[in-house]
Amino acid sequence: MNELLVGHSQFATISTEILARGEAVKFKAYGSSMRPFIRDGDILTVRPMEQGHWTVGQIVFYQSKDHKLLAHRIIGKTFTDGIWRLSVRGDAMNAIQEEISEDQVLGEVFHRQRNGKSVQVDRGWWKIAGVAWVVATRFLRRGRNLASRLKNVIRNSYSLGGK
């Protein structure tokens, strides 16, 4: 694999071209939206993938509507009017869910390297952990929303009773 150091603006063009040729791209991840599975500074490897082979829990590399390249986990998918639409979100609890179409996906993250240790994130324990994370965060988010609503009800009833 050839190594090339490029800036953010060039990375989108070059990585899109490399993946379109059927080759893998390796890069350093920045940010915290995929914590705890992917951390700032981890080295990720992305490979091209066939459209329509999406699975919940899979980490896809895609271009967002504002042209940023992101690696986020699929948390849902729908097929309507002949087009796959994917719901993606970072693993961090504060990450925002985004809806993307299949043509925004450039590839899938299949390998992560951290501190000299490598793991295949699309197999075995890591794949199971990714799906489990999607399910667990759904329940945690619902619980947080319920707790927030309950807190507001208590606060409002206390305010009304205090007048």
Descriptive overview:
- This protein is 32% helix and 31% strand.
- Strands 1, 2, 3, 4, 5, 6, 7 and 8 form an 8-stranded antiparallel β-sheet that branches.
- The protein starts with 7 loop residues before the first helix and ends with a helix.
- It is globular and about 60 Å long.
- The protein is an alpha+beta fold.
- The mean pLDDT is 84.
- The protein has one domain: Umud Fragment, subunit A, CATH 2.10.109.10.
- The protein contains 2 helices and 8 strands, in the order H-E-E-E-E-E-E-E-E-H.
End-to-end Cα distance: 71 Å
Contiguous helical run count? 2
Mean pLDDT: 84
Report on the biggest sheet: 8 strands, antiparallel
* Global structural class: alpha+beta
Q: From the coordinates shown, what is the CATH architecture? A: Ribbon
Number of strands: 8
Strand content: 25-35%
CATH superfamily: Umud Fragment, subunit A
Regions with little confidence, pLDDT below 50 for 5+ residues: none
CATH topology value: Umud Fragment, subunit A
Estimated helix fraction: 25-40%
Name of the CATH class: Mainly Beta
State the oligomer.
Answer: single chain
- Which descriptor suits the 3D outline? globular
Total separate domains: 1
Backbone CA Rg: 19 Å
Order of helices and strands: HEEEEEEEEH
